[in-house]
Design goal:
14 helices; 331 residues; MoxR family ATPase; two-stranded antiparallel sheet; globular; Rossmann fold; ATP binding; CbbQ/NirQ/NorQ/GpvN; ATP hydrolysis activity; five-stranded parallel β-sheet
Length: 331
């Protein structure tokens, strides 16, 4: 990996190369996860923007499969933690181990020290274990036995949770939710997509999922770091920047929302807009790039009013009204 100005300078050639890599990754992921194109684009947006993702959906839609496919196409390190009620913070971060030969304590790093981390069913672990992720997600480091240990780049946490199984779960605190750049919802595929998926899966000898082994490795860890650097330099007009900030600020006084999104949402909207521009091979960010990632950026950072909740209205419906009414700059 090179940190030289030549390697990170935003040129048309660099932008096109990074865009082609991202699009090749999208093609591979669509082979494994059928009928979830929007979800795949959202996950790629977070990867390019250097953010973390909370994946929510009922069992069997392919949340874990998507992360396994991403790990297969990505040449970096991958680790998986199955969150359970008895999982301890040290199981996530690591701990000190006494070495009989040297008669000294040695730090044994936990699965957190990786490039791509799957935190499966994150809401099944108690708050103290969930909190073990906080420092790592925000600071990109872990403190073990008083020593701050940096986590290598890139570092991306993809956490999954089930929205309907409330028994035996510990809801994520707002401080931790805010550290996820995007909250992505996986919905049921439509009829044709489900037909295609069943046709493909039943051709395989695997029981109920597509095999990720045939997928190609299309980029390495250093490619992702370079892609993130290039994305952060994609030109952004002042009016588009203002639009992103206005969207986040509008949630704070919007009827029907009791809690609005903080400044971290404005930052995520801008980073997400730049990532989406790179993904489609554009040389600048448009308002549609910002709007395209707004639902995933905002839905876990706001709270709907109790009376609307009783009426059966969902956060996404309120946010869609907001997106329709906050004026975007003309392109």
């Amino acid at each position: 990996m090179s940190d030289s100005p030549m390697a990170t300078a935003l040129t048309t050639e660099n932008l096109q190369r990074a865009s082609q890599q991202a699009q090749a990754l999208r093609v591979e992921l669509r082979k494994a996860v059928i009928g979830q194109d929007q979800v795949i684009d959202d996950v790629l947006t977070a990867l390019i923007a250097g953010g973390h993702v909370l994946l929510e959906g009922v069992p069997g839609l392919g949340k874990t499969l998507l992360v396994r496919a991403l790990a297969r196409c990505f040449g970096g390190d991958f680790a998986r933690i199955q969150f359970t009620p008895d999982l301890m913070p040290s199981d996530v971060t690591g701990h000190a181990v006494y070495d009989l030969q040297t008669e000294q304590f040695k730090l044994r790093k936990g699965p957190l020290f990786t490039h791509l981390l799957l935190a499966d069913e994150i809401n099944r672990a108690p708050a103290k274990t969930q909190a073990a992720l906080l420092e790592a997600m925000q600071e990109r480091q872990v403190t073990l036995e008083g020593e701050a240990l940096p986590i290598g780049e890139p570092f991306m946490v993809l956490a999954t949770q089930n929205p309907i199984e409330q028994e035996g779960t510990y809801p994520l605190p707002e401080a931790e939710l805010d550290r996820f750049m995007l909250k992505v919802r996986m919905d049921y595929p439509d009829a044709q997509q489900e037909l295609d998926m069943v046709r493909e899966v039943t051709r395989s000898s695997r029981a109920d999922m597509l095999d990720v082994q045939p997928l190609r490795t299309v980029l390495q860890a250093e490619d992702v770091v370079l892609m993130q650097q290039i994305a952060s330099d994609v030109p952004l007009d002042e009016q588009v920047l203002d639009y992103a900030v206005r969207l986040a600020r509008a949630t704070r006084s919007w009827p029907g929302l009791t809690i609005g999104a903080g400044p971290r949402a404005s930052i995520a909207l801008v980073r997400g807009g730049r990532a989406r521009a790179l993904l489609r091979g554009a040389e600048f960010v448009t308002p549609d790039d910002i709007k395209g990632c707004a639902l995933a950026v905002l839905r876990h950072r706001v709270r709907i009013a109790p009376e609307l909740d009783i009426d059966g209205l969902e956060v996404d419906q309120v946010l869609k009204q907001l997106l329709d009414q906050v004026a975007a700059p003309r392109q």
